[in-house]
Amino acid sequence: MTGTIIILPGGERFQLEWRRSDPERWERRLKAKYNESRSAERSDKARCLCQHRGAALPLQIRYRADSHSFHLAVWPNEGPLHEKTCAFYKPDPEKSGRASYVNGVIREGEDGDVAVTLSIGLRRKGPPRPVDDTPLPASDRAGQARQRRMTPLGLPHLLWERAGLTEWRPQFARHRTPTVALGRIASAGTRIRAQGRLISDLLCPVAPGHEKFGRRFHAIVRTEGQENHLFLIGFMEALEPDPRGNFTMALSGQRNGYRCFLTVPAAERNRLARSHQLAAATLALPEAARQAHVVALLYVAARNIGTPNSRWRGWIQAEVRTGALMTVSRSMLPFESSHELAVADPLVTAGRAFEKPLRFDAERDLVFPDFILQDTARSAGYPMEVFGRTDEAYTARRAEKENYYNMTFGRGGWWSWDATTESRIPAFPPTRKGATLS
User: Fold this and answer.
1) Average pLDDT of each block of 10 consecutive residues along the chain (438 residues)?
2) I need a labelling partner for 47 at 20 to 30 A (CA). Which of 90, 133, 290, 373 fits?
3) Type and span of the H or E element at 292
4) pLDDT digits (tens, 9 = 90+) for 142-156
């Protein structure tokens, strides 16, 4: 169970929110428990509400000499054991496209916050460009880590991951709506920094009829729009050409939520369509025929329309500089092919517990599972792989994947489906109780 409550040594309940809302109380209580926590047995140390194999996961109370302050920190190597929505959760980078980044692109703070090095500048100083070309340290993951900046494609993946939207549990059914997902994304943005700013300061979720999102969008445009680019995130409805050769991009809630004219130059629209072919194909279908949603994270220059007597006074004019699209199932789980969706939906229907590792900015030579089942007898998770192509390059790639999984998990220690030859999805691995779900 995850929450904002922390249990200090001796059983005292402590609010994680005090770090921002009541910093004096935060410092006073952690200072009072500092020595007691250091000398306590593991089971009596500070802890959150997460458990692993029935045991509480301890936290450390640490003192920073440089700032004369106290903070809570995850226990070494135990970040991945916390629940995804816990502030102290730290993903295992080897199980997703995070492994493509060199050290320093994603910097996990001891207090659960994350700082990232983006490939685009937040300040409005012409076209997007890298902020700093200083080389980052080489990675200890030889042959895999090449990416030295996080692009606009990696950022929505990070937000989705930090919001806990890459995992599924049976109790999530009927609670994973687009609006709920955006609310969790907004919360996740409060714990991610880039270029000295909280992402939440510049992040504008939009949804139909959501007045709070709409008011926040207009407030951020007023306070930040002149000096900074903004991140607009929502669910895309269409990309349509306009008479001047550009394309009007429509997100859900344009008229009854956030009141914005959103335009994208033709060159950027074409880049988005080429880079995100699955999303483009989904949007090309009639809305009633779509089996998925398309999430758009857009890096925009925005301003309030203040022309006197204009019928559009009070609306926002936003131009897309760059962005990324992500296709998600109706359960808000990202996927990269129709075959992956064909597996994800039955897993949800079967009530399985699993996670979907995301690619971030990884190139195709990085191997990580399409899904990881979390409810089997293997405590580290049961990898799942979908093979969906037969071309020569993919055949060689498939051989590499099979060799990797056999060496890492053993023959028979991982699940696969060859969608090119098997029309029926194989039975899923059994749960810990032994029941086979398919």
Assistant:
1) 75 88 92 92 91 88 82 82 77 83 85 87 67 45 71 95 91 90 93 93 92 92 94 89 72 77 88 91 91 96 81 86 96 96 97 94 86 86 92 87 86 92 93 56
2) 373
3) none
4) 446 689 999 999 999
| Long-range contacts of residues 178-183, Cβ cutoff 8 Å, at least 24 apart | 178/207, 178/235, 178/252, 178/293, 178/332, 179/207, 179/210, 181/332, 182/206, 182/207, 182/210, 182/213, 182/233, 182/234
Cβ distance 341 to 243 under 8 Å? no
Q: Give the three-class secondary structure for 61.
A: strand
Cβ count within 10 A of residue 393: 9
Any idea how long the chain is? Answer: 438
Ramachandran quadrant class, 65 (left: phi over 0; alpha: psi -120 to 50; beta: rest): alpha
Query: Which distant-in-sequence residues (6+ apart) come within 8 Å of 376 by Cβ?
Result: 382, 429, 430, 431, 432
> What is the spatial distance between Cα 205 and Cα 174, in angstroms, rounded to a whole number?
21
pLDDT in the model for residue 367? 85
Strand order in the sheet with 5-7: 13-15, 5-7, 47-52, 55-64, 69-74
CA atoms within 13 A on the CB side of 134: 6
CB-count exposure of residue 365 (10 Å: 0-12, 13-18, 19+): exposed
pTM over cut 0.90: no
Instruction: For residue 257, give the DSSP letter.
Output: I
* Rounded alpha-carbon distances, angstroms, from residue 305 to 69, 155, 201, 222: 45, 29, 21, 11
What are the backbone dihedrals phi and psi of residue 435, each rounded to the nearest 5 degrees, phi first?
Answer: -80, 130
In 3D, which of 91, 80, 98, 94 has the Cα closest to residue 360? 98
Q: What pLDDT is attached to residue 124?
A: 86
Structure tokens at 414: 């991982």
Question: How confident is the model over 221-234, as pLDDT tens digits?
Answer: 999 999 999 999 99
